[in-house]
Automatic annotation (TrEMBL):
Pfam families: ABC_tran
Gene Ontology MF term list: ATP binding; ATP hydrolysis activity
Residues of the ABC transporter domain: 4-236
Record lineage: Bacteria, Bacillati, Bacillota, Bacilli, Bacillales
Keyword annotations of the record: ATP-binding, Nucleotide-binding, Transport
Family annotation (InterPro entries): AAA+_ATPase, ABC_transporter-like_ATP-bd, ABC_transporter-like_CS, ABC_transporter_ATP-bind, P-loop_NTPase
CDD domains in UniProt: ABC_NrtD_SsuB_transporters
Annotated organism of origin: Neobacillus thermocopriae
Name of the protein this chain belongs to: ABC transporter ATP-binding protein
Length: 265
């Protein structure tokens, strides 16, 4: 039995006058410890699918099971990391990273110590825990957001374009840090990204979604020689360009199809 099972997901957004189908017949599985990415044209439903898996949106049809249990019955098993860090500006870094533990009633001396140690493992030491978010750079704030997400020990981590607002050098460093941290903790993760290189460098598999309504168009298995490397080194491996070009051409084809369908005949 797969760790995560997404079964026949269909989702339509309804307004007073319209019905827009965002996702149609999405089925996939993710194994424990696996890192997968959702890639596709803008508006293909990547974030909607992520939100359904995280139980933030109830799908029109279909089910999502984590360890064979409906995600709707789970409490603290899924962590979410977004493009914005959403740190509370009036709280110290320590108060921010302990917030999830406090809300889920898991805060005690042991979990507090573990979380502060994780902050140091992220390279955030020297009294940073007593500072306010405005005193940190964007990359440092995202590291804090990751610590806050991991503090409650979620079984599944959802990453919704967490590096897209960062400069390129910081983004590359954080890709390595996040990848190495998740591997060290044996975490299962799903990444939504527009960046083909990021998806290849960080993932075990990449799911390419078709334009709206989103469907699984193709699944790409990342070569073993890339999986063994950190994201930074994977980008420099000779096999990287081959898989990049393959996914690029498929994505270009999907986007051209989308443009043709929008052009009046």
């Amino acid at each position: 039995m797969s760790f995560l099972q997404v079964r026949n997901i269909h989702h339509t957004y309804f307004t007073k006058d319209t019905a827009t189908t965002a996702l149609s017949d999405i089925s996939l599985t993710v194994e424990e410890g696996e890192f997968v990415s959702f890639l596709g044209p803008s508006g293909c439903g990547k974030t909607t699918l992520l939100s359904i898996i995280a139980n933030l949106i109830k799908p029109t049809e279909g089910t999502v099971l984590l360890e064979n249990k409906p995600v709707s019955t789970l409490k603290n098993d899924i962590g979410y990391m977004l493009q914005q860090d959403y740190l509370f500006p009036w709280k110290t870094i320590e108060e921010n990273i302990l917030l999830g533990l406090k809300l889920s009633k898991q805060l005690n001396e042991k979990t507090k110590t573990n979380t502060l140690n994780l902050l140091k493992q992220m390279g955030l030491n020297g009294g940073i825990e007593k500072q306010l978010p405005k005193q940190l750079s964007g990359g440092m704030r995202q590291r804090v957001a990751l610590v806050r997400t991991l503090a409650t020990e979620p079984k599944l981590l959802m990453l919704d374009e967490p590096f897209s607002a960062l400069d390129y050098q910081t983004k590359l460093k954080l890709e390595d840090l996040v990848s190495n941290t998740l591997k060290a903790f044996g975490k299962t993760a799903i990444l939504v990204t527009h960046d083909i290189g990021e998806a290849i460098a960080m993932s075990d598999r990449v799911f390419l979604l078709s334009p709206r309504p989103g469907r699984i168009y193709k699944t790409f298995e990342i070569p073993k020689e890339l999986k063994r490397l950190s994201p930074f080194h994977a980008r420099n491996h000779e096999a990287f360009q081959g898989i990049f070009q393959t996914i690029w051409k498929e994505l270009e084809s999907l986007e051209q199809t989308t443009e043709k369908s929008r052009t009046p005949s």
